[in-house]
Amino acid sequence: MSTESLSTQRRPSVCAFLALSLDGFIAGEGGDLDWLTPFSGDSPQETGYSALMASADVLLMGRNTFDVVRAFPDWPYGDKPVVVLTHRPAEPGANLSFRQGELGQVLRDLWQEGVRHLYLDGGELVRQGLQAGLVDELTLFWVPVVLGKGVSLFGGEPLPERLVPLSTAVLASGLVRVIYRPAP
Fold this sequence. Notes:
Blueprint: H1 3-8, E1 13-21, E2 25-27, H2 44-47, H3 49-55, E3 58-62, H4 63-69, E4 82-85, E5 96-99, H5 103-112, E6 117-121, H6 123-131, E7 137-143, E8 151-152, E9 163-170, E10 176-182
Parallel strand pairs: 1-6, 1-7, 3-4, 3-6, 4-5
Antiparallel strand pairs: 2-8, 7-10, 9-10
């Protein structure tokens, strides 16, 4: 199925929200996130995270991201429904389910289930969504750090569409938030 037919079918509105280093990494080597700690002083209201979580019906994340997040001392998503896209076996829980399949089909299935606004998380899954033209809004927080290596958001792959910046803001911590939409 072509990218054009995927993006014209009924599916939830998809937003992604990620921090990345100036050289395009969302995590350091081995998934390390400690480099973000000095820049964590902005409130969820200032970053827009609170508004995103309030508007999203479901959070869809990749398995690698889920494995990192479930090791956090506290589950950061409260009672927000979380769907993990994975091919590995897993135990569902309260507000937590697991699915297999191609991203476009999962989005169509979620639409059929009533999901209208989806928060997409995880580098590989966001990259797939961008490559397939399935991300409607991309919020990036540029962190004034150069990592040199780690987990790349873009993976060296060119994006099929140009991203147009809608707004920018410099936060007190030094992060620069840029909200992008694919070019019409």
